[in-house]
Amino acid sequence: MNRCQFVDDHQRRFGVKRLCSLLGIARSSFYYWRRTAAARAARRSAEAGLAARIRRVHLDSDGTYGAPRITAELRDEGDRINHKRVAKIMRTLGIEGVRLRRRHRTTAADPAAAKAPDLIGRDFTATVVNTKYVGDITYLPVGGGKFCYLATVIDLCSRRLAGWAIADHMRTELVIDALAAAGRTRGSLAGAVMHTDHGSQ
């Protein structure tokens, strides 16, 4: 038990001065602890509410979202929070996201192909949602020597997954399906810039 809490619980019987002396607590420290009790309770309540929201987002993602994605979701909902705090609470709750392992690069540069212009100028930040996106393709082993490809479209402002598609090939349709999914999520991608690594796909 906290020593200040002990003093508070027994002060009527033994007196604050005597208890603080016996427990080696400065009376000023005890009175400060008591004055700030309401603020501490409010912080604990806010922390519990945040933990509940983190758990909800994690469950809604079928346990796949890690701290960065959960942080982005909470920011979209209006929470002003950073990913370090989310990661700390996730560790306390004993939950974590799924990490995808890349077995090999799916983007192989074609030296004969003309390079598309870098419309974002290597600036992977955005201040407005639905203006800049980054796309990627990840290799997913599924057992039995087989594999699939996961194409993703991520908003550079919210860092939120806007669209995705999965297939057993790396043809153009895979990327088109991911972009179509993002378009359905956002309503429209008109005017937005899409950045991908230069590659054969």
TrEMBL record:
Alphabetized Gene3D superfamilies for the sequence: Ribonuclease H-like superfamily/Ribonuclease H (3.30.420.10)
One GO term in the molecular function aspect is:
nucleic acid binding
Q: Which domain of life is it from?
A: Bacteria
Q: Taking every annotated instance into account, which residue ranges of this chain make up the domain Integrase catalytic?
A: 113-201
Q: Which GO terms describe its biological process?
A: DNA integration
As recorded in UniProt, coiled-coil segments are none
**Transmembrane segments in this chain: where?**
none
Q: What does this gene product do? A: Involved in the transposition of the insertion sequence.
Annotated PANTHER family: TRANSPOSASE INSF FOR INSERTION SEQUENCE IS3B-RELATED (PTHR46889), TRANSPOSASE INSO FOR INSERTION SEQUENCE ELEMENT IS911B-RELATED (PTHR46889:SF4)
Q: Which NCBIfam families match?
A: transpos_IS3 (NF033516)
Protein's name according to its UniProt entry: IS3 family transposase
Question: Which species?
Answer: Streptomyces cahuitamycinicus
